[in-house]
Amino acid sequence: MTLELRGARVLVTGASSGLGRAMAAALACDHEAHVLALARRQDALEDLAAAADAWPGAIEPVVLDVTDTPARQAWLQEVGPLSAAILNAGMTLTGPFSKQSATKREQMIALNVTATTAMAQELAPLLSAGRGALMLVASLGGLTPLPYQAAYGASKAYLVSLGLALQQEWKRQGVSVTTFAPGGIATEMTSGAEFASQQRHLQPADDVAAAALKALSERQGLVVPGMQNKLMAAALKILPPSLAAAIVERQFRKDMTADRA
Ligand SMILES: NC(=O)c1ccc[n+]([C@@H]2O[C@H](COP(=O)([O-])OP(=O)(O)OC[C@H]3O[C@@H](n4cnc5c(N)ncnc54)[C@H](OP(=O)(O)O)[C@@H]3O)[C@@H](O)[C@H]2O)c1
């Protein structure tokens, strides 16, 4: 049974920019959904809510840092049943692993892994009330070792594994779990010089958002949007991971190791 997005109550984390903003906007504008749009930046969420005045659905801003466990749990106690939740908030960390900031790496793992895992568990009762749907936003980079985004890639590989496991555990309760694994998207995350050579391969956030919402409503499992990315994902099923890692290392070495000090 597909998930009806029209009139649905949907949580989108990381809704202040990039893919999350595009998904929240498409839900409210094209699908008449009531979106709980969550992020830390209040001004960006209020801009989105103001734009939604002209849309058939609604945007309800939720200003929250999902890594703040007491604040997150207090909010989730009050939120009530949801048709769907899209756990999209994430960050990356680029460059040679040995030079990366340990503090930023811990923040990334706290967000991409710890908070996302905790929220999946905390959301389960809110979703199961109405045979809801959960989406974890992983990455194509979670399907291969990812030199120069090594810990990021590992965090997304974790989400791929978590999502595929929960898909099986929750299917008997009627709750679908979609693991969404996009390739490069043109967002704040990829706007820096380290992604310079990738720019022409980046997909528009609106296109990726449309693919994500289709996958969510069709209750698909692991989904890679875009033909080029699908071909890459198919190749990654055949290539030994060490060879895939060597190819990625060569592709990213120049941009990711440039000294920009
Ligand atoms: N861009 C790509 O090429 C790409 C490719 C594959 C997968 N992805 C994944 O897609 C997702 C969205 O990425 P994006 O490219 O759209 O990045 P983005 O434009 O940087 O957006 C990240 C979002 O996460 C929110 N966020 C960050 N920390 C948060 C926290 N502690 N609590 C709540 N919200 C937080 C940010 O909002 P605030 O700063 O306002 O909190 C922002 O709305 C991520 O999971 C990313 O890993 C991206």
Describe this entry's structure for a reader.
- This protein has 261 residues and is an alpha/beta fold.
- It has a single domain (9-257), classed as 3-Layer(aba) Sandwich (Rossmann fold).
- It contains 8 helices and 9 strands.
- A 7-stranded parallel β-sheet has the order 3-2-1-4-5-6-9, with helices on both faces. A two-stranded parallel ribbon has the order 7-8.
- The chain is globular.
- The termini are far apart.
- The model has no long low-confidence stretch (mean pLDDT 96).
- Residues 13-20, 39-41, 44, 65-67, 88-91, 111, 137, 139, 182, 184-185, 187-190 line the site of NADP nicotinamide-adenine-dinucleotide phosphate.
Short précis:
By secondary structure, the protein is an alpha/beta fold. The chain has a single domain, classed as Rossmann fold (3-Layer(aba) Sandwich).
Features:
single chain, 261 residues, alpha/beta, Rossmann fold, two-stranded parallel sheet, binds NADP nicotinamide-adenine-dinucleotide phosphate
Helix and strand arrangement:
Elements: E1 9-13, H1 18-30, E2 34-39, H2 42-51, E3 58-63, H3 69-79, E4 84-87, H4 102-128, E5 133-137, H5 150-170, E6 176-180, E7 185-186, E8 203-204, H6 205-217, E9 222-223, H7 227-238, H8 241-257
The structure holds NADP nicotinamide-adenine-dinucleotide phosphate.
NADP nicotinamide-adenine-dinucleotide phosphate binds next to helix 1.
